[in-house]
């Protein structure tokens, strides 16, 4: 004897072990076998993973702040003081003293196909003698751009061009000009000393913060401050030596 059919006349049949019945008669969302199969596949699909939390990238904390200690403070101070002296030495090499030097013009910006690049990247620069610079652009079309950059600078120099070779003769310095340059050199030296002393101030402040946080003793603080002062004295002497050497160069020309 056949079991009775459902009241609505549909025959319920299990769908692939999913427990979902599909209608064999009448229209419905699962009346077609393919539709029921796709629906069963969605039901059996594992739940989606929860979204990962957003990750934010923060600017790194300076090394000195993360690992502040007396050795690190002194090392940082020495590094910064060294850079101050090197900056002074580099700036003074660009000072026109009457002696030919490639550093005098190699930093000049040249318009190279729409971009400003240093002269040293588009030409060969050499010292012909004590008072003459020779500049040879690597491309003939750059001769005009190099001349324009030299004339437009604040060096007060006039280039002489022969073919693709540009020569610059350094004019002799007058006594008045020597004195002006000597004052300028001394002023730059004082600026470098101020920079060195500012580094000392920062280092001393860091040491005091360590003492305030009870990370060092008073004796350790005192010794650290003495060492920082010795560093300062040494680099101030280095500044004086750079200034004196430049002043002597001015007097000898």
Short description:
By secondary structure, this protein is α+β, with helices and mostly antiparallel strands.
Folded structure, characterized:
By secondary structure, the protein is α+β, with helices and mostly antiparallel strands. Helix content is 49%, strand content 13%. It has a 4-stranded antiparallel sheet with strand order 5-6-8-7, with helices on one face. It has a two-stranded antiparallel ribbon with strand order 1-2. Helix 3 runs antiparallel to helix 5, helix 3 runs parallel beside helix 6 (218-252) and helix 5 (175-212) runs antiparallel to helix 6. The N and C termini lie far apart (128 Å).
Q: Report the portion of residues in β strands.
A: 5-15%
How many strands, which pairing sense, and closed or not: the largest β-sheet? 4 strands, antiparallel
Shape: elongated
Contiguous low-pLDDT stretches (5 residues minimum) are: 7-27, 46-62
Topology as a string of helices (H) and strands (E):
EEHHHEEEEHEEHH
Number of strands: 8
Radius of gyration: 39 Å
Mean pLDDT: 79
Helix content: 40-55%
Across the major sheet, the strand order is 5-6-8-7
Our count of helices gives 6
């Amino acid at each position: 004897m056949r079991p009775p059919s459902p009241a609505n006349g549909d025959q319920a049949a299990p769908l692939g072990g999913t427990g979902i019945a599909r209608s064999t008669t009448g229209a419905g969302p699962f009346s077609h076998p393919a539709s029921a199969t796709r629906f069963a596949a969605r039901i059996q699909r594992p739940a989606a993973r929860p979204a990962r939390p957003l990750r934010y990238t923060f600017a790194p904390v300076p090394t000195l702040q993360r690992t502040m200690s007396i050795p690190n403070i002194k090392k940082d101070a020495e590094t910064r003081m060294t850079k101050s002296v090197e900056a002074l030495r580099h700036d003074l090499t660009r000072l026109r003293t009457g002696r030919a030097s490639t550093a005098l013009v190699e930093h000049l910006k040249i318009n190279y196909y729409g971009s400003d690049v240093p002269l040293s990247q588009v030409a060969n620069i050499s010292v012909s003698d004590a008072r003459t610079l020779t500049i040879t652009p690597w491309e003939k079309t750059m001769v005009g751009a190099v001349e324009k950059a030299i004339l437009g600078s604040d060096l007060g120099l006039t280039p002489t061009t022969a073919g693709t070779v540009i020569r610059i003769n350094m004019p002799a310095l007058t006594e008045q000009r020597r004195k002006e340059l000597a004052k300028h050199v001394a002023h730059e030296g004082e600026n470098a000393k101020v920079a060195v002393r500012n580094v000392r101030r920062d280092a001393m402040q860091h040491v005091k913060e360590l003492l305030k946080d009870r990370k060092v003793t008073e004796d350790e603080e005192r010794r650290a401050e003495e060492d920082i002062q010795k560093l300062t004295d040494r680099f101030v002497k280095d500044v004086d030596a750079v200034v004196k050497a430049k002043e002597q160069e001015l007097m000898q020309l």
